[in-house]
Amino acid sequence: MENIQPLAIDGVELSKPIIISGPCSAETEEQVLETATQLARKGVKIYRAGIWKPRTKPGGFEGVGVPGLAWLNKVRKETGMKISTEVANRSHVEAALEYDLDLLWIGARTSANPFAMQEIADVLRESGRDIPVLVKNPVNPDLELWIGALERLYNAGITRLGVIHRGFSTYGEHIYRNHPQWRIPLELRIRYPQIPIICDPSHIGGKRELIASLSQQALDMGFDGLIIESHCNPDCAWSDKNQQITPEVLSVILDNLVYRDAPAPAESLVQLRRQIDQLDNELLEVLAKRMNISREIGTYKRDHNMPVVQPNRYGDVMSTRILAAKSMGIGEEFMRSILSAIHEESVRLQVEINK
Ligand code: PEP
Ligand code: MN
């Protein structure tokens, strides 16, 4: 994907931070236009609204469909904002192109589906249009699948590509609706520095209260923009009402964000980074030692015909370490994910020995 071009609409490169806002769903013409008018007054330049809504279960509001595209055209005409929506199949793309949308995005359920991605890529190729497309991360934390979705579009002639980080699904109740797992978008940034990354704090947080801090975190990590759901009357929204904010609140949040340039790091930062480098080396050494002992245990288990996974032992290790970690001010979720990654690798090594 070496020929990816900067995100631009009508030949004008989008200035950073790229801010996209608008309702989760287009509901009525009045709601679409009222929200847009308020956003335009606050200086937002790119409008979003879902026209076809992928819902977890049937029976809910599934979007207004094609009539909503005409409302978006009205938004562009009346406010001058650029307009964008989510597409998930051939007919969505055809309709969005017919209504001359400025930008498309691919939702998280669609980027997880190679058949749907190929269908979208094919119809874009047939259209001969090089419209800017933003690809949300797939619902599952699979970087290769995310990159694969981008490659399908790129191979179809789409050169103005960006990504949206909207977090990853997990089972059960958590602070976040979709876990951010920041290292996945950061890894993508390292591999494809030319692809802009936009953060979607609305779908990561799932709650209004988390939007400001998630947005700041994203900017601090060098993200190129934000896509935030807003609605003229959020409490009455037909989808995702807990995470939508008014254009007024959006503007307060945006005004309070700190946009940091990347100046040469001060000496104190250099010193702190040296300490981190040193500690990382120590961590690596300790991990390597632990894995060697795990191999020895693997040999013992093989020689004594014992199964590799001993659930009681694993439970003990988890609970004692998590307790100790908590007393040292280390978060429980964080410790749990580190321990389970270490355990997974130990099991892999021990299974190898048994082969
Ligand atoms: C959306 O942007 O409204 C949406 C459906 O998002 P996601 O694909 O991230 O769930
Ligand atoms: Mn939504």
UniProtKB/TrEMBL annotation:
Report any Pfam family annotated for this entry.
Answer: DAHP_synth_1
- Give the first-level EC class, as a single word: isomerase
Q: Answer yes or no on keyword Transferase.
A: yes
* Keywords noted in UniProt: Coiled coil, Transferase
**SUPFAM superfamilies given for it?**
Aldolase, Chorismate mutase II
Q: What is its EC number?
A: 5.4.99.5
Protein name from the UniProt record: chorismate mutase
